[in-house]
Write a structure and sequence with these properties.
seven-stranded mixed β-sheet; globular; 3 domains; alpha/beta; four-stranded parallel β-sheet; 27% helix; Metallo-beta-lactamase, Chain A; single chain
């Protein structure tokens, strides 16, 4: 389980949504503003009290490394697990994490401090075995792994049943892009082509465009334009200014440009499809 950014309320929301702390293996910090990282050391401390033993990986801008290590020594001495810090370059789009099922790349963004988003890309899985063909040719289950990897089947009479007849294609690869605090970047869509789910900040509506430009944030319309230009399937808006008592105004603004829009909210669960 990945955690992207870790604000002060992270532990409360994890408990409220019944997400197990122990399942978090990697934490990605987009930038070093308090509303994105002040909960990090507290969460690590709690993990220590829970008796965690598995290594926790933290990815953040390199300028945070010295301060982070000092805070760890002061607040989290004698932890029962290793916290491995990985400095990242927020100015380059490159793979920073990879395992057998997913890769994570940075998305350079433009904010008042060094900032990047994260692109999660699922790796292509194995094809699916056709159970009807398995039964028809009476293929023993011990050959399933080989067939998934590309093998065919040879019948007793020597006839070769090709691999393609025994399987169906693997599930489509899914992608999720998280674009944290940023001003509108006209060419950002080039890094997000065809993403299934795009989270893009939408702090303001277009009437506050001057504030968005001043504070390096985006409007809902600008977020929608990125989604449209990138050809994504689903746009998730978030990071709303407190001036809005009803964020529907942001959703409606975005929908004039891009149709499939959802407002992020605490506890919301969104499928990446």
């Amino acid at each position: 389980m990945f955690l992207v950014d870790c604000a002060e309320g992270a532990q409360l929301l994890l408990r409220r949504t019944h997400c197990r702390f122990a399942n978090i293996s990697v934490i990605f910090i987009s930038h070093l503003h308090g509303d994105h990282c002040l909960g990090l050391v507290g969460l690590i401390s709690s993990l220590g009290l829970m008796g965690r033993t598995a290594t926790l990986h933290v990815y953040a801008h390199g300028s945070f490394q010295d301060l982070f290590q000092q805070m760890m020594k002061f607040f989290c001495p004698n932890l029962s697990f290793v916290v491995s810090f990985h400095p990242i370059d927020t100015t380059a789009a490159k793979v920073i994490y990879e395992d057998k099922s997913v890769s994570v790349s940075t998305i350079p963004l433009e904010h008042r401090v060094p900032c990047c988003g994260f692109l999660f890309k699922e790796k292509e899985g194995m094809p699916h075995i056709r159970r009807d063909m398995l039964d028809f040719y009476k293929i023993p289950k011990c050959y399933i792994a080989g067939i998934k990897e590309g093998a065919g089947w040879v019948k007793d009479d020597g006839e070769v049943i090709p691999h393609e007849r025994l399987v169906t294609p693997p599930d489509p690869v899914r992608t999720y892009a998280y674009c944290s605090d940023t001003r509108y970047i006209p060419n950002l869509h080039e890094l997000l082509k065809g993403v299934n789910l795009l989270y893009h900040e939408s702090t303001y509506d277009e009437t506050c465009l001057h504030l968005a430009e001043k504070y390096y944030h985006s409007t809902a319309a600008q977020a929608a334009k990125v989604a449209k230009d990138a050809g994504v399937k689903h746009l998730l808006l978030g990071h709303y200014s407190a001036r809005y008592s009803d964020e529907e105004v942001l959703k409606k603004e975005a929908e004039t440009i891009f149709p499939n829009v959802t407002l992020a909210n605490e506890g919301l669960i969104v499928d990446v499809v």
